[in-house]
Known about the structure:
Layout lengths: L7 H40 L9 E2 L14 E19 L2 E12 L4 E10 L14 E9 L25 H4 L11 E4 L8 E2 L4 H14 L17 H39 L6 H24 L1
Parallel strand pairs: 1-2, 4-6
Antiparallel strand pairs: 2-3, 2-5, 3-4, 5-6, 5-7
Amino acid sequence: MYRFLLTPRWWGINLFVVLAIPFCVFMGTWQLGRFEDRVQTHDAAEKQPAPGTRPAKPIDELLPVDTVTSGRPATATGRYADQFLVPGRKLDDKSGFYVLNMLRTDSGKALPVVRGWLPGKPGSTTVPAAPTGEVTVTGDLQASENAGTAGVDTAGGLPDGQLGMISAASLINLVPYDVYDAWVTLQDTGAGAGTGTGSSSGSGSSSGSADKAAGALRPVPAAAAQGTGLDLKAFQNLGYTGEWFVFAGFVLFMWFRLVRREAEAARDLQLGLVEEEGAASEAEAESGKGESKDAVGSGTA
């Protein structure tokens, strides 16, 4: 009764099933592993102390930015150079912009430093001046932004001196020096956004007093590293896991259904409950010929 499984048509169906089910199981297992990795990363992050409470280290020792170093306090020494305003950034549900300065370090590379946040739009709010001379800054390390980061402006067309995305890829086209593939956000904006050293100490303190008097710059909290929490992507992995296992079950169910239907058709044929396709076709042909003869006879009469 099941000899039909050895026919060329069923060989193709069986081969598809044999390949499809392991593939679906593999993909489901892979998606489940991705979800478990995110859960373990989340648990590990929960057990570790907050990144901001850990001791500060030189910027070069914390690169490249990953889930472990993101948010860690980083230190760098240099002189402030170009300044950019980053519009469209919210803080406590209020619209405003970041004040970003490039810190030229002794290595020749510049570190983007967000000195703080100001309400309003660039150009309508007075921006406190950055400290002059050599300064040492300590800020929470952040990875370069991308198109998926909240608040970034990828449309372009911003006025001179404004920046839509804080990343080395966008800054390298605006400044004539190398840029770190990371940035820091200062949590102490009342100290002149940096500690002056040597002869520039007085200048740094002076700027700090001005900033404090204005009371405008507010620290920008460090964002959690991507992929360290049970976010939407984690639950998407879990949903995809279920989908792949459902696909595997569906393929197996359809195979059994096709086999059962084919077996029932073969059994009915053996019991004579249905005629073979060839015999039925011949009977229909003979019946058609008989009807034609009758029609011709009737016409003659």
